[in-house]
Write a structure and sequence with these properties.
single chain, Beta-Lactamase, six-stranded antiparallel sheet
């Protein structure tokens, strides 16, 4: 519109060079909005000296040397919004009628600017209203969809899918917090395979969680803590948003969104992410509770199954292998071992393991003295369950054959009224894998196993006696 107004003026009066300078609404700084007439077009620095009085006080400013330049105010009321600049040698010979004409023309330009600004603001308001409606619809759809499933993996996948409709990202992740470790449970744009972040060591993620409100980085590569401990999957990240997942004032995880373009996310996204994160936290916790209840039912059936099998099996080796298989296949524990106590040598001998074939166990020759400082011997010596969710913090820990990646361990003594029978040991490559509920569950199985072992020993002794 401004360029067209200058073209009309140039065609009608053959003015050599024309320009319009406007004052920015946000910064109050002048900028060159349009030029017309003969090339080359003048620059802002060239024009400003001729328009200082006009821009400051909405007054007509005439300069006749070294060139004839008029600066006609563009004003709303008494407030200047810019200037119409006319550069032509013929101006020096013109009278007041030219000044009146250009002033009137400038007013018409101002009216056009006002109308255009009003139209733009109306469009922006309409767009904002449309955006708000779309966001509300997405939130409602998200709530409906999430309430339709209680499978945790499905819930996490749906969260990442829905939020991308509102805030597009290059890749994203949902990390769930267990103890001090964030584990990637769902990802979009990359493969989430065994990605765990220790928040006691990673200051960046520790601070992101402590905020309890979304954090935005326009260029995260400038952050010192990020550069020190950036996860591999985020190597190309420039723009980053992280939103803690908070349920009833308890942090349960972190939602992160990434983009390879610096400045891609802006502050307006924070409230949206916060709303999504709050809704996601509720859905995640509901799915967790449902899964826990389902797991408890499964655990109950597994304990009952083990109880029946231990009551029927009299062969100790078969008994140990059966219990280990149930713990591994039905309850999902990674590494399970059973050590039996030999009171004559005062040692604990490995008799069965989930990752070692039975026929290979004699070749392992793995026996632990009762006074050994490790987790298994300590549990046997104290005759109390021992939970170590960070083996690096346990001075006596040592890695068994093939278990160098283990990070957490739970050892439960096998006890009867006659004393120590052995130790049932669980290990995991994930830190903070075991919780008090695991100890309660496995202790029940350990008690069943201890009684079954003692019964099998008595049966064997009786058989040997009568023979």
């Amino acid at each position: 519109m401004l360029a067209e107004a200058l073209d009309i003026l140039a065609d009608a009066f053959h003015y050599r060079r024309l320009a319009i300078i406007l004052i920015d609404d946000q910064t109050a700084e002048p900028y060159l909005a349009a030029t017309g007439g003969e090339p080359p077009a003048p620059g802002l620095d060239e024009l400003l000296p001729f328009a200082t009085e006009t821009l400051a006080g909405a007054t007509l400013q005439k300069t006749d040397s070294p060139a004839s330049v008029w600066s006609i105010p563009l004003a709303i009321g008494q407030a200047p919004v810019g200037a119409l600049i006319v550069l032509d040698d013929s101006l020096a010979a013109t009278g007041d009628h030219t000044a009146r004409f250009l002033t009137t023309y400038a007013r018409q330009i101002t009216v056009g600017i006002t109308a255009a600004n009003l139209y733009q603001k109306t469009r922006e308001q309409q767009q904002q209203a449309l955006t708000r409606r779309q966001i509300a619809e997405h939130l409602q759809q998200m709530a409906t969809i999430l309430n339709a499933t209680l499978d945790l993996d499905d819930v996490l996948k749906l969260i990442l899918e829905r939020i991308k409709f509102v805030i597009p990202y290059r890749y994203a992740a949902i990390m769930l917090l267990r103890g001090q470790t964030l584990t990637v449970r769902a990802a979009a744009g990359f493969k989430a395979e065994d990605i765990a972040i220790n928040t006691t060591e990673n200051i960046f993620y520790q601070q992101a969680l402590l905020q309890q409100y979304p954090t935005i980085f326009h260029d995260i590569t400038e952050n010192t803590f990020w550069k020190l401990a950036r996860p591999d999957f985020a190597a190309a990240t420039k723009a980053w948003i992280g939103a803690p997942l908070v349920f009833r004032k308890r942090i349960i995880g972190l939602l992160t969104m990434h983009h390879t373009e610096a400045g891609y996310f802006d502050a307006a996204d924070l409230d949206l992410v916060h709303t999504f994160a709050n809704q996601a936290a509720i859905a995640i916790e509901n799915a967790r509770l449902y899964n826990q209840e389902q797991q408890k039912v499964k655990q109950f059936h597994t304990v009952a199954k083990i109880g029946r099998q231990t009551a029927e099996i009299r062969d100790i080796q078969l008994l140990l292998e059966t219990v280990i298989r149930r713990l591994h296949e039905d309850l999902g524990y990674e590494f399970i071992s059973v050590f039996l106590f030999d009171p004559e040598s005062n040692t604990l001998a490995l008799r069965a393991a989930s990752d070692i074939p039975t026929e290979e166990i004699p070749a392992v020759l793995h026996a632990l003295p009762l006074d050994h400082p490790g987790v298994i011997s300590t549990a046997a010596r104290t005759q109390e369950p021992l939970l170590v969710n960070d083996i690096s913090a346990f001075p006596g820990y040592f890695a068994g054959p093939g278990r160098e990646a283990v990070q957490s361990e739970a050892a439960l003594p096998l006890m009867t009224h006659n004393g120590l029978v052995g130790v049932l040991d669980l290990q995991s490559i994930s830190p903070h894998r075991f919780e008090p509920d695991d100890i309660t569950l496995v202790q029940t199985i350990a008690d069943q196993l201890a009684i079954a072992i003692e019964t099998a020993n008595l049966q064997r002794q009786y058989t040997e006696f009568i023979q």
